[in-house]
Amino acid sequence: MSDDGKHKRWFPLESNPDVMNAYVEKMGFPTSLFSFCDVLSTEEWALGMVPTPVVGVIMLFPIKPHTEEADKEEAARIEKDGQT
After folding, report:
1. Nearest CA-CA partner of 13 in 60, 51, 57
2. Which end of the chain is flanked by fewer CB atoms within 10 Å, N or C?
3. CA dihedral 79, 2, 10, 74 (to 10 degrees)
4. pTM exceeds 0.90
């Protein structure tokens, strides 16, 4: 966090793999080698539908008031005790 009191805002990611693939392809990402796809579940039946090899996972979840409160509490703890 900067000293001027301004906070960086993270904007929500699009959860549509087609949109993500088109976006990163415009930035030069080799979508012919790697691409985004939906993971419907972490159960074996669903993981079998995920193309391999997998090199990363992006977890998307809704931001709710309790999530933001937990983030503030964690930031205060880190500022007080340091990052572990």
Report:
1. 60
2. C
3. 10
4. no
Task: Return the residue matching tokens 């939906």.
Answer: 38
Structural domain includes residue 28: yes
DSSP state string for 4-58: TS----PPPPP--HHHHHHHHHHTT--TTT--------SSHHHHTTS-SS-----
Does residue 56 contact residue 39 with C-beta atoms inside 8 Å? no
Question: How far apart, in whole angstroms, are the C-alpha atoms of residue 41 and residue 39?
Answer: 6
Residue 84 has what pLDDT?
78
Distance, in Å, from the CA atom of 13 to the CA atom of 20, rounded to the nearest integer, reads: 9
Residue 57 lies inside a defined structural domain of this protein? yes
The number of domains in the chain is 1
Query: Hey, what are 13's tokens?
Result: 């990611």
